[in-house]
Write a structure and sequence with these properties.
Blueprint (H helix, E strand, L loop, with lengths): L18 H12 L9 H26 L8 E3 L18 E3 L122 E2 L1 H4 L14 E2 L10 H6 L9 H7 L6 H16 L9 H8 L8 H17 L10 H13 L2 H5 L1 H13 L4 H14 L6 H4 L22 E4 L6 E5 L1 H7 L12 E5 L2 E2 L7 H7 L2 H20 L6 H10 L12 H11 L4 E3 L5 E3 L1 H7 L10 H19 L12 H17 L4 H15 L8 H15 L1 H7 L6
Helix pairs in contact: 1-2, 7-8, 8-9, 9-11, 9-12, 11-12, 15-16, 18-21, 20-21, 20-23, 21-22, 23-24
Main location: host cell
GO cellular component, one term: extracellular region
Catalytic activity: S-ubiquitinyl-[E2 ubiquitin-conjugating enzyme]-L-cysteine + [acceptor protein]-L-lysine = [E2 ubiquitin-conjugating enzyme]-L-cysteine + N(6)-ubiquitinyl-[acceptor protein]-L-lysine
Length: 688
């Protein structure tokens, strides 16, 4: 304890006052206002006295009287020691003028109505603190921790909060005018009625953040900051300043910012723009146009994000703009060519409309990209589309049948309705489709909707359908005159994709059968191979423990150094599968690598993981397969180095961030570059 002080010049003497007396006297000293006009020696004396009292009071508080009760505290031009413990202190209506409070512990403290203007509070700990109506203008809160803090009606104008932690904080009616919030996590924060005018929100994370009635006029944002934003109910009376100076050249920037599957809860930049109220329609169009112009200036391929772009740009109000509509059709034209060799996923109605419009505008592309065109027509007519879309598709197909290369096949006896020489759309077994092998090939097929579904593997039959008619230069070819497997690979690559689709599903089922999963869980995995995103997640503690319990020491093992490897007995059972039997060590390495990529994909947020968590057992299994692949390919230095980084990332070791989505994406890229045919036999087409 320390002696009660009544004046700064007093010194400690014999005896000690009770804690309550010391506490009362301390409040008198600490609440004393030192006039600015005072002499420097006088100010220094008072500052020294206040610091001496605070230091001793803290010592007494920590030992005897609990959290400090110091409302109306006044301190000016002082530097508090780093990590000074003021946890739970009552500092209501206190004045801190130009006080340096670096890393001070203020968790659960009450700073309601306090004035902290221009204070340096870098690294300060303010978790669960109450700052109701606190004045924090021009305060430096860089890297401060304000998680779960209550800043209702606080003033943070011109404040710097770069890298601060604001998760789950309450900012209702808080003012951030011209504040800097770069690299800040505002996930699940409550910003209703907050003033964010002209605030710097570049690289700020807004997942699950409430922005209703928040004023964002003139705010600075970037693609990285918009990915999870929902502007629903936000007020944007002025422009939003979208910063695209970084371009799209950063690693995976296009996919990360524009592909909605990477942001299950937010939807990416395009969805964020679309969430802005229709009241601000000119702003929505302006922002979309900025994205368009920026992408037009890049040389990067838009293939992976074309569906997302078409999904938004093909709808009102963007498609009503001539330049945006024209660019959408250009994207559609490039997008179409992908499906000459790739199976078309089910498209949104608006996207399908853009594709049909593109074929209508460029009729020669119907023949050049016959495979893509037939898939589009099949989706439009048989996938429960709006009547207008169905009619548009039928009209366009009738036009296709008049082309000089197509018309002769429409006269064949096997085609459609034999009596009318026209398609019979009521009969799915009728050979309505004229399918050209390619612009330089003499081969063509007549096939039905049932035959198309079989060859694409969408009916999940075990073998290729034989209900088609093959022609060469318009002349029928007997089955004895060709080998379908060879013809499929060389002339009809789309159907080779269908074959590999069935093959990968067969291989996945065989591998899953070795993992001791319940029938329901195994069926969940199989069903998920048919879609790009799963609404079912496996991140709850119960599900993770159950899966880890099934696989630990049976499928994978951890050694004393924390390395995850495949169980030898499990690997021996895998070696009996058609996928691995009779393969060389190098080929087995490629297969095990692809299996590692497959289970890393399963752990990603697009499938069984979330943005916050991913199934540990799936990451461990991916790491174990990766370890086996690395062992078999240990002589390839580049691969071994990448594999080590990926293994550490999957397990969160050696300072690597754990992100299954990023690892899966990089592994898919590696497999596509080095052994694409093996990858196609393992990785479902919907996941590539």
């Amino acid at each position: 304890m320390f002696r009660a002080m009544t004046h700064p010049s007093d010194r400690a003497g014999a005896g000690s006052a009770p804690a309550e007396g010391a506490k009362t006297t301390a409040r008198m000293i600490l609440s004393r206002t030192v006039p600015d006009a005072s002499s420097k020696p006088h100010k220094a004396k008072w500052q020294k006295a206040k610091w001496w009292v605070l230091k001793n009071l803290m010592a007494a508080s920590n030992r005897h009287i609990g959290a400090l009760d110091l409302p109306h505290l006044i301190m000016s031009d002082m530097t508090l020691p780093r990590r000074l413990n003021l946890t739970g202190a009552n500092l209501r209506k206190s004045e801190f003028n130009r006080v340096t409070m670096t890393a001070v512990l203020l968790c659960q403290s009450d700073l309601s109505h306090a004035n902290l203007t221009s204070c340096n509070m870098r690294w300060a700990k303010l978790r669960h603190a109450t700052l109701y109506r606190a004045r924090l203008d021009k305060v430096l809160l860089r890297r401060a921790d304000l998680q779960h803090a209550d800043l209702n009606q606080a003033q943070l104008n011109h404040a710097v909060l770069d890298f601060a932690k604001l998760h789950n904080a309450n900012f209702k009616l808080t003012s951030f005018y011209r504040a800097k919030l770069r690299h800040v996590d505002l996930s699940d924060a409550y910003l209703r009625y907050a003033n964010l005018r002209n605030a710097d929100l570049r690289t700020t994370h807004f997942r699950g953040t409430c922005l209703r009635n928040a004023n964002l006029s003139g705010a600075h944002i970037s693609p990285g900051g918009m990915c999870n934003m929902n502007f629903q109910g936000a007020i944007i009376e002025g422009d939003l300043k979208l910063d695209l100076s970084a371009g799209w050249s950063q690693k995976n920037a296009l996919d990360n910012y524009l592909n909605p599957s990477n942001y299950a809860k937010g939807g990416g930049v395009l969805q964020a723009i679309d969430s802005i109220s229709p009241v601000y329609q000119p702003l929505k169009i302006t922002l979309m146009r900025q994205i368009m112009v920026s992408l037009q200036q890049t040389d990067l391929s838009l293939a992976t994000v074309a569906p997302a772009l078409l999904d938004k740009l093909s709808s009102a109000p963007y498609y009503d703009e001539l330049d945006i509509a024209r660019w959408s059709q250009e994207i559609g034209s490039r997008f179409i060519s992908i499906f000459d060799t790739k199976i078309m996923r089910r498209q949104q109605e608006e996207v399908l409309r853009v594709i049909l419009d593109t074929f209508s505008r460029y009729p020669e592309s119907m023949v050049i990209h016959s495979a893509a065109f037939i898939q589009t027509i099949a989706q439009a007519i048989y996938a429960r589309r709006a009547s207008a879309t169905v009619q548009q598709a039928k009209t366009l197909y009738a036009r296709y049948l008049t082309h000089r290369r197509i018309a002769p096949y429409a006269l064949k006896e096997e085609f459609g309705d034999r009596a009318k020489h026209a398609p019979n759309w009521q009969d799915k077994s009728a050979a309505n489709y004229v399918f050209l092998a390619g612009k330089r090939s003499a081969y063509a097929l007549l096939l039905s909707q049932e035959g198309l579904e079989s060859l694409l593997g969408s009916d999940h039959s075990a073998a290729d359908c034989r209900h088609y008619y093959l022609y060469r230069d318009g002349v029928p070819v007997n089955r004895q005159e060709y080998c379908w497997e060879t013809l499929r690979q060389e002339r009809f690559p789309l159907f080779q994709s269908g074959y590999l689709r069935r093959l990968s599903e067969k291989h996945i089922i065989e591998v899953l059968a070795r993992l001791n999963l319940s029938a329901a869980t195994q069926q969940l995995f199989v069903e998920t191979t048919k879609q790009a995103y799963s609404n079912i997640k496996l991140v709850s503690p119960e599900k993770q423990l159950l899966m880890h319990g099934l696989w630990a020491n049976r499928v994978y093992r951890f050694d004393t150094d924390g390395n995850c490897t495949l169980d030898e007995g499990f690997y021996a059972r895998l070696m009996q599968l058609a996928l691995l039997v009779d393969r060389s060590p190098a080929e087995r390495a490629q297969v095990t690598f692809c299996l590692a990529a497959l289970f890393a994909k399963c752990a990603s947020n697009s499938l069984f993981g979330t943005e916050d968590d991913s199934p540990y057992a799936l990451r461990s299994l991916a790491c174990a397969f990766l370890d086996r692949a690395c062992t078999l390919l240990s002589r390839i230095a580049h691969a071994a180095r990448d594999f080590t980084v990926w293994k550490n990332a999957l397990l969160g070791r050696q300072g690597e961030a754990t992100c299954a989505s990023v690892v899966a994406s990089e592994m898919l890229g590696y497999g596509t570059t080095h052994f694409p045919e093996v990858l196609k036999q393992v990785m479902p087409v919907e996941w590539r």
